[in-house]
Amino acid sequence: MQHHKRPPASILFIFGGSGDLNYRKLTPALYNLFLDEWMPDRFAIVGIGRTEYSSENYRAHLQEGIEKFSRRKAEENGHYKEFFEHVNYLQLDAGDIASYQRITEYVQQKETEWGVHPNVIFYLAVAPQLVPSIAQELGTLNLCKDKSATRIVIEKPFGHDLESAHELNALLTGLFAEEQIFRIDHYLGKETVQNILALRFANALFEPVWNRHYIDHIQITAAESVGLEGRGGYYEHSGALRDMVQNHILQLLCMVAMEAPVSFDANEIRNKKVDVLNAIRPIRREDVHESAVRGQYGAGWMKGKQVTGYREEKGVTPQSNTDTYAAVKFFIDNWRWQGVPFYVRTGKLMHQKSTHVTIQFKEAPTFAFPSEAAESWRSNRLTISIQPEMDIRIRFQAKRPGQTMTLDPVNMTFNYEGSDDHTPEAYETLLLDVMEGDATLFMRADQVESAWKVIMPILETWETRIPQDFPNYVPDSWGPEDADALIARDGHSWINLPPEKK
Ligand code: BG6
């Protein structure tokens, strides 16, 4: 039995209640919070959608989602009934202004029933084009004037480019106070991502060497083995750079590169991160081809199964120039990172699913050792695996046992699974934070815009220059050859993570 402070009474309205995100991620996350006794003593979850559902059918639909996607397996599922007593469905046409009154009525009814004024959370799990109009309507409700109790959660993508993100921010900040707006980047909710701060700032070992004097370069890989998963309609207008680099990868980069925060205050952490984004050297349009590589997969085979090429996917135009792979080399112009390249890459249908950060240290001087010792010499490397492996590996030199001074690189590994099999999903952490009103792991307006600013020159250049070689990589590979050339020009190569032997 856990003993912790639960969040205050809350009502969660989920727009897009009959949609995929709620089915796969939000309800399973809320269910796990419920099992772990993190849900408030008094709470209600109200799915909002246009599809017709009786509350009973709606619950059955979500229960199926839990069965498929929840991290908890069947034996713990005895609590369904109890959980679903808190779940309801409101059929509502988001375009019909009058129907928003029903939200207010629902809140009033709960307030009377519970005898407390609850937190009211509006979660917009809807297509991006619907966000402005829903936010506009919600903003007119009296409820939203309560800055401390009413919150709005916005899913990614947050805008399509710098200009649209700026417009969306202007609209939202005109209707809500910044502390009411929770912009999600679900990578920030991942345990292994949060642990980057613990690793860096709770240990005396790393921080003194965490800079350009000791680090040669840094790599961030977010490789996916899945393809579009039926999301062609969305992805075709996005592409890898927008879908992964602008948000998840740049946020990982911020965690790795930020200065030590003075406190764990939400704004302090976000200030330190935004400093990193603002220090990234702008890539000049004429240099984009040297700093960034794009790719698109063709038809081929993936683990023994035939897969169609991107251009033949549903929702994709046959001449599409959308990138399904992107690699970029960034520099951060500040005292800590001057001259240290940050290589980042992401792609769909890659050989292996693996998200990891590699800190490659400079070579130690080898002169004291006999020359044969130096043959297998490898410089130190710290690898932070985010998923699916969840570990931290340090590579160092060790003497091979025997009468000669021969060295071998060896790995020391910290593995989360061994220490705790109870790892919450990102959405659990983030939903709990929303109920508690803690915005540390959410994107502030200026953060989102700074991240767009970083990638705009690449986006604009790619949009105006038609790629000549698409499709340029096959499924089950590590992406286009140009990406290898990008890093090879500096004398390095991409580091692919071998799964840790268990
Ligand atoms: C989403 C992207 O934000 O992140 C998807 O839109 C991508 O295209 C997903 O597949 C990856 O998330 P995760 O948690 O599976 O690494």
UniProtKB/TrEMBL annotation:
Annotated catalytic residues: H248
GO biological process: glucose metabolic process; pentose-phosphate shunt, oxidative branch
Domain of life: Bacteria
Domain Glucose-6-phosphate dehydrogenase NAD-binding: residue ranges: 14-195
Database matches in InterPro entries: G6P_DH (IPR001282), G6P_DH_AS (IPR019796), G6P_DH_C (IPR022675), G6P_DH_NAD-bd (IPR022674), NAD(P)-bd_dom_sf (IPR036291)
Pathway where it operates: Carbohydrate degradation; pentose phosphate pathway; D-ribulose 5-phosphate from D-glucose 6-phosphate (oxidative stage): step 1/3
SUPFAM superfamilies the UniProt entry points to: Glyceraldehyde-3-phosphate dehydrogenase-like, C-terminal domain, NAD(P)-binding Rossmann-fold domains
Pfam families registered for this protein in UniProt: G6PD_C (PF02781), G6PD_N (PF00479)
Residues of the Glucose-6-phosphate dehydrogenase C-terminal domain: 197-494
KW Cytoplasm (keyword) present: no
Sites where the protein binds NADP(+): R50, K156
Residues annotated for substrate binding in this entry: H186, K190, E224, D243, K348, K353
GO molecular function, one term: NADP binding
Keywords associated with the record: Carbohydrate metabolism, Glucose metabolism, NADP, Oxidoreductase
Entry EC number(s): 1.1.1.49
Record field: catalytic activity: D-glucose 6-phosphate + NADP(+) = 6-phospho-D-glucono-1,5-lactone + NADPH + H(+)
Cellular-component GO terms for this entry: cytosol
PANTHER family named in the record: GLUCOSE-6-PHOSPHATE 1-DEHYDROGENASE, GLUCOSE-6-PHOSPHATE 1-DEHYDROGENASE G6PD
Family: Belongs to the glucose-6-phosphate dehydrogenase family.
Function as written in the Swiss-Prot or TrEMBL entry: Catalyzes the oxidation of glucose 6-phosphate to 6-phosphogluconolactone.
Name recorded for this polypeptide: Glucose-6-phosphate 1-dehydrogenase
Lineage: Bacteria, Pseudomonadati, Bacteroidota, Chitinophagia, Chitinophagales
